Each structure stands twice: as C-alpha cells, then as structure tokens.
Amino acid sequence: MTGSDKDLPQKSSRAAVDSFLDRVRATPAAKPAGERGRLMFAMDATASREPTWDQACQLQGEMFRETAALGGLEIQLCYYRGFGEFEASPWLTSSNDLLRRMTSVSCRGGHTQIEKVLRQAIAQTRQKKVQALVFVGDCMEEDVDRLCHLAGELGLLGVPVFLFHEGDDAVAQQAFKQIAQLTRGAYCAFDASSADQLRDLLQAVAVYAAGGRAALRDFGNRRGELVQRITRQLGKD
C-alpha cells in the first residue's frame, strides 16, 4: 500500500462527509471578472452509453449559446471507453470544435474510469480555476472510497461536480450522490428517452460555470422543476 493509499478513508462515514463539507463551505467558487467560465464535460463512452452520447452530440451547441451573454465558456471534453482508454481535449471555445470532437468518438465496451475524470479535474484546476465538472454516466464499477477521497479534494478546490445519472443502478446512484455532496455539487437522474431533459441539464451547468448561482437560479426559473432541483442542492450563496 502506498502512502497516498494509506490516506484514503477506509469507509465513507457520516463524520468524514460532514468534515469535508464544513471545509468546502468556506471555499469560494466564483470566476474572476472578465474571464470565460471553464467547464469540464465528462462522459462515459462505454458501449451502454451510445444512445445518450448521440443525444449529447446533437445538444452540445446549446451550452455555448446559453452562456454567450454571461461572458462565454471554455469546455474541455473528457471521456473514457474500452480497455483503460481516457481522453481529454484542449480547452475549446467553439461549439463546432466540440461537436467535431464528439462526433469522432465511437463508444466501446469497458469498465468505468471515473477516478481518471476526477484526477483530471484536480490537475486542471490547479493550473487554472475550473468552475464546474459535469459527468454523464449510468454505472460505477470502482472503489467508492477512493472516488470520495478525490471528490473531497475537488471540494476543497471549490469545483462542484454535477452528476447526471442515466438509468436506475443503485450502486451508481449512491456513489454519485456522495461525490455531489462532497464537492457541493448536485446529482440528478434523467430519463434517456427525453432529449429535452438532457438539454436543460447540460445548459444549466454551463450557465452555472459562466455566471454562478445567481445565473443558474434565473435559468431554473425559466426552465422549471428539473433545473430548480439542481439549484436547491447547491445551497445558498
């Protein structure tokens, strides 16, 4: 066992969660004035995710359009698939560039690699602040305590994780909710048959990354209960 492994919690206790949340609440999350918001957009590209990947390709341009009046957005696309394959794009400011990259990806069978997603978010925000990480997935096949340890680091860095869960896998639901809580982010299940739901959820996170909680609240008031549910999880300014 390495030194870093010894530091990992042996179980996800209530006390450990509360301790992290107390420290996270004191961490500011606003972006500097005049800069674009930075959003990491991470997706499970294993075989079971192909229909929703295709949906997201069609809807991704809405994220840029919705944030134009808030100062704009930079997005880094991350995905995993197959046998240990993990990719992260450069930071993109064009919906056409993002669409080009997404449509070049084909989904492949494999296990989840959410740990790599969280580590990428930590590394990126240590270089330059990332306002939010959005993850879209349907299952979790990793050590939940290791993921929660990394989520705690993201919480201390002030990077909320928004986890959008397709399906009803109970193990994934529990893990995703813990990650959202530790990062002061939000969890939301969605119906893969509804493109409108996924569109609104992705737009909501983009609005948050570009304009913060106030912009998200305004967006939620216009878009309804599904988006308002995310706003309530974030808590008060």
Keywords:
237 residues, alpha/beta, Rossmann fold, disordered N terminus
CATH overall fold name? Rossmann fold
What is the number of beta strands?
Answer: 6
Q: Determine the N-to-C terminus distance.
A: 40 Å
Strand content: 15-25%
What is the overall silhouette?
globular
Gyration radius, in Å: 16 Å
- Overall residue-averaged pLDDT value: 85
Q: Outline the biggest β-sheet.
A: 6 strands, mixed
3D architecture notes:
Helix content is 51%, strand content 16%. With 237 residues, it is an alpha/beta fold. Helix 2 packs parallel to helix 8. It has a 6-stranded mixed sheet, sandwiched between helices. The chain has 10 helices and 6 strands, in the order ααβααββααβαβαβαα. The protein has one domain (34-234): Rossmann fold (3-Layer(aba) Sandwich), CATH 3.40.50.
Element layout with pairings:
Blueprint: H1 3-6, H2 14-24, E1 37-44, H3 50-59, H4 61-67, E2 73-81, E3 85-88, H5 95-103, H6 114-127, E4 132-137, H7 144-157, E5 161-166, H8 170-183, E6 186-190, H9 195-223, H10 225-234
Parallel strand pairs: 1-2, 1-4, 4-5, 5-6
Antiparallel strand pairs: 2-3
Helix pairs in contact: 2-7, 2-8, 4-5, 4-9, 6-7, 7-8, 9-10
